[in-house]
Every structure is written in structure tokens, then in C-alpha cells.
Write a structure and sequence with these properties.
The structure is a single chain. The protein is an alpha/beta fold. 30% of the residues lie in helices and 27% in strands. Strand 5, helix 4 and strand 6 form a beta-alpha-beta unit. Helix 8 crosses helix 9. The chain starts with a strand and ends with a strand.
């Protein structure tokens, strides 16, 4: 019994994560056009019509742009909490009543034999969540779009086999970005914004103590970060703290504009 994890896209320009477990096929967010997401799924050997559900983290367009199209075309159930449903309806359009599923944040629900825990994140959205997914004794999770990595989040994610963790921006690049207003910069750095590269590393240091051994950096800003800088910063701090990157903890990358590595967890 294994879990398959693959980031199709992850970044400020659009997000979609595929997670497969047995006969259950999940898509966490669909923040690009439906056709783009469908093509990316096909590239990794997953037919869009076989998706069991789309799990929505929050209503921002880089997470829901393709949700409505995919659900209507392939009759895919869409899961979100009630406040997110209310906030995203104008973006996703009409969803068939049979495909509209509402959960309570913080309460586990099941799709097939897969356990799904939506946990609250600190973000400027109606009721933003991340997801922990367990199947057959293994687990994966997503943790993006959060201004702070709280102790409660650490408890939820303790010991997961693989975690997609936000490493959104470099503070110096954000500070020097002439295209961003001061108001936007303040929002990004607030407790309802995003995690910086260094804040991401701080979270990894705490997660590693709980047994987390594989981190995939995700949701990088297009203008205020780069994959090379994120990896350099994160791995550099981890080494400074005495960890052996590649042994004590492995660090991978979820790409903004293309499919990332496909991870197979379990047997």
C-alpha cells in the first residue's frame, strides 16, 4: 500500500498537487486553467476523469482557477469548508450539487480508504487549510499559504513521510522589489501572508525532530525568490544547525512552471 505524490505546479502563478493512494486519486487545488492541469496529469499517467476529488485549500485564484472547469467536465467532487465555498463560488462558477462536498476544518474525513485531515492555516483567506493525508500506515501533507508555522501545525504534521512546505520569498528580494507596493510587502510578511525561506527552514528544524525526513519546497514567489536561492538558504541553515542534508533530512523542489519529481511512499 503506497502513496504517490507529485507536484504538477507550485508557485504564486498557480498550484496543483496530485496524490494517489490505492484506487483514490486526489488533486489538491487546481490553480491553473483546466486544460493545463489535465495535460499535466496525463503526463504523469493519470487520466483527469479518474480523479476521486479536488481538495481546495482556499479561494485565491492561484488555487481555484481550474476547479470549476475540471469538476463540470469530468464530474469530479470538490471538497472545501463552507466559508471557502462561499468565497470561491464567484471564481469557480456553478458546481453540480452532487459534486459539492463540505467539510469541517480540523475534522478528519475519508475518501475510499484514505484519511484526510484539513487543518487551519494562517492566511488572508476566508478559512484557509492545508491537508494531511494518511493511507496504509504512510502519510503526506501540504503546508503552504501560511504567515506563521504554529505549534498546532507542527502537531498535525509531526512524523509525516513527505511534506510540501512553503518557501515563498527572500526578504531582501521582496524589500528591493519596485513592482510591489509597501502595502503588499507588508501583507506578504505578516502572520496572514507567506513563509520566507528562513522561516521555512525554522519549520523544517522542528519537523525533523518529529521524524519528518523528506521536505519538498513549494509555492515560491516568481518575483521574490528563486529555486536556487531557496535551496541555498534552506540547506545552508540546516547544515549550520548540524544536520546532514540528504541523510538527516532530504530537500527537494516543487517547480512553479512544470511537473516535479514523482515520489512513491510505501510498497
Amino acid at each position: 500500500m503506497k502513496i504517490t505524490f507529485c507536484s504538477l505546479f507550485s508557485g504564486s502563478s498557480g498550484n496543483a498537487i496530485y496524490i494517489g493512494a490505492g484506487d483514490t486519486h486526489l488533486l489538491v487545488d487546481a490553480g491553473l486553467p483546466g486544460k493545463t492541469v489535465s495535460e499535466a496529469l496525463s503526463k504523469i499517467g493519470v487520466l483527469p476523469e479518474t480523479l476521486s476529488a479536488i481538495l481546495v485549500t482556499h479561494e485565491h485564484s492561484d488555487h481555484v482557477k481550474g476547479v470549476g472547469v475540471l469538476s463540470r467536465k469530468y464530474r469530479i467532487p470538490v471538497y472545501a469548508n463552507e466559508r471557502t465555498w462561499q468565497a470561491m463560488e464567484k471564481h469557480v462558477g456553478a458546481i453540480a450539487p452532487a459534486c459539492r462536498r463540505v467539510f469541517e476544518s480540523g475534522e478528519t474525513f475519508y475518501i475510499g480508504g484514505v484519511s484526510i485531515l484539513p487543518y487551519l492555516t494562517s492566511h488572508d483567506a476566508a478559512e484557509s487549510v492545508g491537508y494531511r493525508i494518511d493511507y496504509g500506515g504512510h502519510s503526506v501533507a501540504t503546508a503552504t499559504d501560511m504567515g506563521v508555522f504554529s505549534k498546532k501545525t507542527l502537531q498535525v504534521l509531526a512524523g509525516v513521510d513527505l511534506l510540501l512546505l512553503e518557501s515563498n520569498y527572500d526578504p531582501d528580494m521582496l524589500k528591493e522589489n519596485e513592482h510591489y507596493s509597501q502595502r503588499l510587502k507588508t501583507r506578504i510578511q505578516s502572520r496572514y501572508g507567506h513563509l520566507s525561506n528562513s522561516a521555512c527552514t525554522g519549520a523544517i528544524l522542528e519537523l525533523q525532530k518529529t521524524g519528518v525526513r523528506h521536505i519538498v519546497l513549494g509555492h515560491l514567489s516568481q518575483e521574490n525568490n528563486s529555486p536556487e536561492l531557496a535551496l541555498q538558504t534552506v540547506c545552508g541553515i540546516l547544515r549550520e544547525q548540524g544536520l546532514c542534508v540528504g541523510e538527516d533530512v532530504c530537500v527537494g523542489m516543487a517547480w512553479r512552471d512544470r511537473t516535479g519529481d514523482r515520489y512513491e511512499i510505501g510498497k
